[in-house]
Amino acid sequence: MVYRLLRQSFGALTGEIIAIMGGSDHLVPDRRQSLIYATRPMLASTGSQGHRHGFDRLIWIRCAVLELKGSTMASRNRSARDLAYESLRTKIMTMQLRPGEKVSEVELASSIGASRTPVREALGQLASEGFISIGRGGGYTVAALDIKDVQNLFEALLLVARSTARLLVANATYEDLSYLRKATERFDTVVGAMDAAQIAQRNYELHTLECRIGGNTYLSMLGERVYSHSQRLSYMSFSGAGDQLDELPEHYRKTCTDHWQFLDAIEQRNTIETDAIARRHVALFRSRVVRYIEADDLGGLDLDDPDPPNL
């Protein structure tokens, strides 16, 4: 009787494991396989070493099932959170959600077909990055952007660009240079299409890659934040200043030239030249933003700061 109950329990658990495996694409494959492989000999030998060992095996397999279920649920939650994060970040970067605009947790959850928990986690992450403000009552709004923010951003951007340039000369390998070359080519490709959102995204990817290759973890984290906020400003200045859009092709040409000359200077281990190009590149972006601020269509930039811009 006990033997038959053990066999039935093992059979049910085996079916449960297989069902979980069949719908658990997000599980780490090695861990998933190790669990199912470990249970097979136990199932095959049930009863051969006594009922006590059978119960021990039953408990072990039950734990395996719970771990599989937990891993699957955690993976699904991460996927929903990542989807919510990317959706929100894209809307913020492309000004679909403007500075000061309220963000509905319920609407976002509905739009991506997720529960509110992963959406809340995504909002928390964006708040930690400075893109979302959380009100005292728990409401969410897109963080404001004013002249002082822009001034501070350019100060940080110049520091990051120059420090990264020095580190790249010292640390970049030939393999690293090949990665940078591919990222530079991807930027050139989207420039040809004149897609402001993709240009801002590829520029962000190139410069954060430079930061990571530089090899300083703390500078890389700072660079990630600085270039994230620069990405939003890039999109605004590339797409929002209507009467200045005819100047963009020349701006993009200079930007592409800077990228390639910077890469050449790194390869030549020329510290002086990389520093000069880094300075010039930040100044080029700054000049574009100044022209954008001077235009009538500011697309979300708050000019209530009492002091005039000194960029």
TrEMBL record:
<dbReference type="InterPro" id="IPR011711">
    <property type="entry name" value="GntR_C"/>
</dbReference>
<dbReference type="InterPro" id="IPR036388">
    <property type="entry name" value="WH-like_DNA-bd_sf"/>
</dbReference>
<keyword id="KW-0238">DNA-binding</keyword>
<dbReference type="InterPro" id="IPR036390">
    <property type="entry name" value="WH_DNA-bd_sf"/>
</dbReference>
<protein>
    <submittedName>
        <fullName>GntR family transcriptional regulator</fullName>
    </submittedName>
</protein>
<dbReference type="GO" id="GO:0003700">
    <property type="term" value="F:DNA-binding transcription factor activity"/>
</dbReference>
<dbReference type="Pfam" id="PF00392">
    <property type="entry name" value="GntR"/>
</dbReference>
<feature type="domain" description="HTH gntR-type">
    <location>
        <begin position="78"/>
        <end position="145"/>
    </location>
</feature>
<dbReference type="GO" id="GO:0003677">
    <property type="term" value="F:DNA binding"/>
</dbReference>
<keyword id="KW-0805">Transcription regulation</keyword>
<dbReference type="InterPro" id="IPR008920">
    <property type="entry name" value="TF_FadR/GntR_C"/>
</dbReference>
<dbReference type="InterPro" id="IPR000524">
    <property type="entry name" value="Tscrpt_reg_HTH_GntR"/>
</dbReference>
<keyword id="KW-0804">Transcription</keyword>
<dbReference type="Pfam" id="PF07729">
    <property type="entry name" value="FCD"/>
</dbReference>
